[in-house]
Structures are given as structure tokens and as C-alpha cells.
Amino acid sequence: MPSVYKDKKSPYYQTDIWINGNKFSRSTRKTSRREAEAEADRIEQRLREDLKVDTAAETSLRIDDVALRYMKDVGDHHAGEGASITEGKVARLVKYFGPDKLLTDITHDDVVQLVNWRRKHKVGNGPNARPISPFTVNDTTEQLKKLFTYIKARQVKLSDHAPNFGDDALWLREPKSRPRALSPSEHTRLTEAVDIRPDAEPLILFERITGKRKTECFALEWSHVKWDRGMIERKGKGEAWVIIKITPAIRALLWPLRGHHERFVFTYVAQRNMAVKRKDGTTERLIKGKRYPYTKDGLRRIWNNIREEAGLPIPATTASGCTTFGTTSPSTSCGITQAPMG
Fold it and tell me: How far apart are CA 68 and CA 332, in angstroms?
């Protein structure tokens, strides 16, 4: 039976599961020891079923086995919600090709067909459904390319029919973003609308002061804040270091947030008692008035409510699922920019 323990950085019990000499650390997302122990057993069972840790699977080129090894060696180490996002991309490829398809049997023409299949997918239902963006289609191709790079790095020889990812036919043209600046009246309405969620105001102001990506803001942890050195340091997209100087404005913004949460800098206040189903299949019960760390989807809902209150259009989510608070950066603006504050 896996052991469970409390980590100072999380309100949930954690568990370490050992399978064939490999250690897998997971959050049970349970605050009760009894529930955590039961969940740890379920996690271990799922891991044993999913990993298929036998000798054949460790060398197999079935796309299902390669995907499992890739997640263990690469995907599981992606920061924040990156691991679950990568897992979803890999699972889509396994479902499309079938778990028994050898990765080395996938040809260039197979990838062309994958692109054509993916571009037919839509977001939403009914008459308002729209095609997914070229960014999202290319994201699928990029993930397949990463699987091929993964096995090539392990000395697997590819055939002459292997995909040529340098071929433009495998990639859709991605339109350049065209940000629109807020008008003075829109700026005023947006500033006033933030009052409906004062708990979100520190996060919104921090993003507007720093101009950083959404994920570099809402996932900020106290361990990244180096008060003594006057710097915020964390790994961002592509494992690159993101460095932010703690200016007087940033210090004044962050200092009052100490004590809200043991691990995360920015949190929101639950507006009502409710059960929330997480992507890992667990259910978390939120208590009205208590603070919780932001999730990507939860933050998007809060921001869209603020935009609606301000009478601003709610844009379609981009391939990266970006939510922005009106920065001057086209890469994160989702089409609307304004002068940064601070």
C-alpha cells in the first residue's frame, strides 16, 4: 500500500509510488488521510495498468508504448499544467493511429492525412461551431514530431518513408496576431469592471505591470520570489528562465498577498460552495470564502466575466488557450492591447 504524507507546499496529501524501481510522486488531491490512502491505491493501480512496465514495453515501438515512455521521461516533467496538456496531445495521437501502430511505420503520407483530419475539427457545437485554429492543428503535428525526435535520440533507425517534418505540406500557415488597442472609454470600463472580482485584481495588475504571459503569472509560486535579491525567477516556456525585477510597484502589489496561500502567490476566493471536477478525474469541493490557486480554465471564466461586465468582446480562445488582461504583447494579447500600468 502506498504511503501518504503532507507536503508544506500543498494542502493535499501526497503519495510516492514505487514500481519496478521507479518512483512516481503524485498528489492525491485529498485533504483527509483516509481518502488520500484510498486514492493512492487507485493511483497505483492506474499507473501499473497504464505504464505496462515490462521489458517488452521498454523497447517496443508501438506508439502506445513510446507515448508512455515519452511521458515518463519528458512529459511528466513539464511545469505547471504542462504535463496534463502534453498527455492530452499524446493521447490524441495514440487514438488516431491506434495503440498497436508502430511509430516507425508512420509515413509522410500518414502525417498529411493526420493534418487533414485534424483541421476538420471544430470548437463548440451547432451553428456557432468554428474550425480549430491553424495553431492547434500544428500543435498536433509538433507533438508527433517530438515523439520521432524522442526515438531517434535513442538510436532508432527510421525508414526512407518516415515523415519529413521540414515539408511545408505538414504545417498550416499561422496568421499573425493583430492586437487592437483599447479606447479610453473601454480602458475606463475595464478598470471599473475589475471591482466585481477584487480577488483577481492583484493578478491582473501584475500581468499588466510585467507584460508577462498568463502562465508566467497565475502559476507564480512564493519560492520564485527572492525578496532578498529583489528578483522573481522561474522557468517559463521552453524551460527558459523568466527574470522579473521586483520594482517598488511590484513589491507593493505582492507584499500584502503573503499568507493567502502557502505555495501560490495569486489565489481567488470561492464565490459559493461547489464541487469541481479536475482533469485527473478527481473532484475537489470548494468552500465559499476560502482561497484557492487559479487553474487555467477557472481564470479564463473569471476574466471573461470581467470583460462581459465591461462590455468588451470575448475573443475565441487561441491554440495556447491564452487569457490576457490587456498587455502590450501581441503574443499574449488575444487581440486587445493597452498601455501597461505601473
Answer: 32
DSSP-derived 3-state class of residue 12: coil
User: What's the whole-model pTM score?
Assistant: 0.47
Give residue 306's identity as a one-letter amino acid code: I
Closest CA to 314 of 289, 338, 339, 336: 336
Q: Enumerate the domain spans of the chain.
A: 52-170, 180-337
Give Cα 144 to chain centroid, integer Å: 18
Q: Is 241 helix (H, G, I), strand (E, B) or coil?
A: strand
Which helix (H) or strand (E) segment is 17 a member of? strand 13-19
CA distance linking residue 246 with residue 254, whole number of Å:
9
If one looks up domain 180-337 in CATH, what number appears? 1.10.443
What tens-digit pLDDT sequence spans the chain (342 residues)?
Answer: 688 888 777 788 888 888 777 778 888 888 899 998 999 898 888 887 776 545 555 778 889 989 988 988 888 877 656 777 888 899 999 999 999 999 999 999 999 999 999 999 988 888 888 888 899 999 999 999 999 999 998 888 888 889 999 998 899 988 776 656 677 787 788 778 888 888 888 998 888 888 887 777 888 899 999 999 899 988 766 667 778 899 999 999 999 999 999 999 999 999 889 888 776 778 888 899 999 998 888 888 888 888 888 888 765 444 334 444 443 333 333 333 443 333
Query: Measuring CA to CA, how many Å separate 40 from each of 4, 63, 193, 198, 284?
Result: 7, 28, 43, 37, 16
Amino acid at site 122: K
Q: Which residue has the cell 508501438?
A: 62
